[in-house]
Design goal:
The structure is a single chain. The protein folds into 2 domains: 16-34 and 126-213, PH-domain like (Roll), CATH 2.30.29; 60-122. Helix content is 37%, strand content 26%. It is built from 4 helices and 10 strands, in the order ββαββααββββββα. α2 runs antiparallel to α3. It is elongated and about 75 Å long.
Length: 214
């Protein structure tokens, strides 16, 4: 896969890459072949109007731990700055300030960003909106690193462009959800969780695909 199957623009990586135009995360067919393709069966009813991909709610203990690290990180940065104010001519004070501000600021900002991401995903979850023959994909960009994860992909796909749904596994053995493109490549939805939730979320998508033949 050298180009985006949707936009035909060149991709950075032939196996897994995000298109700079449509913002979709593409996986090559060679990777997709290792995923579990879900079977499309005739169903009664429709897919509904919208599907929200809810994340697992973080425990209060985990949030408390992360906030504690944020406080410790920013506290270390403040101590470093205070050492300069107390002893502005001392070399050790400047060394302490540089280490405290850089390391403490990084720890504080990173852990605080993780907490904010959890809150944002719960307050505004990723969604798939079924609009006739179009599927609007609005998902958090969890595949591009911590700061990139604050952005959302928003793109429309036609029904004939989506031919299936597949499941993969993260390194932590959580289930990931993918759309199968007509090219055979896969589109990552940036969501991971339990297999039971993934199968539940896959059903409205499969119903929407199955309706193409009606």
């Amino acid at each position: 896969m050298t180009a985006c199957p949707l936009c035909t623009l060149p991709l950075d990586s032939p196996l897994s890459s995000c298109c700079e135009c449509c913002d979709l995360w593409w996986l090559d067919v060679n990777i997709a072949s290792h995923h579990e393709r879900l079977e499309i069966r005739p169903v009664v009813g429709d897919s509904g109007d919208s599907l929200q991909l809810m994340w697992e709610r973080p425990s209060p203990f985990a949030i408390a731990v992360l906030l504690s690290f944020a406080v410790l990180g920013y506290g270390a940065a403040m101590v470093g700055l205070a050492s300069i104010w107390i002893q502005p001519m001392a070399l050790i004070a400047w060394v302490s300030a540089i280490i405290g501000v850089s390391l403490g600021g990084w720890v504080g900002s990173t852990t605080l960003a993780i907490v904010l991401l959890d809150v944002l995903r719960l307050a505004r979850p990723s969604s798939l909106d079924f609009r006739g023959d179009e599927l609007r994909v609005r998902v958090w960009r969890t595949w591009g690193g911590l700061w990139e994860a604050f952005r959302r992909t928003d793109v429309d796909l036609r029904r004939d462009q989506v031919i299936g749904v597949s499941l993969g596994l993260t390194q932590g053995m959580q289930t990931q959800l993918y759309l199968v493109h007509q090219s055979g490549h896969e589109i990552g939805l940036g969501w991971h969780g339990s297999r039971e939730d993934a199968l539940l979320y896959a059903q409205p998508i499969l119903r929407w695909i199955e309706q193409a033949g009606r």
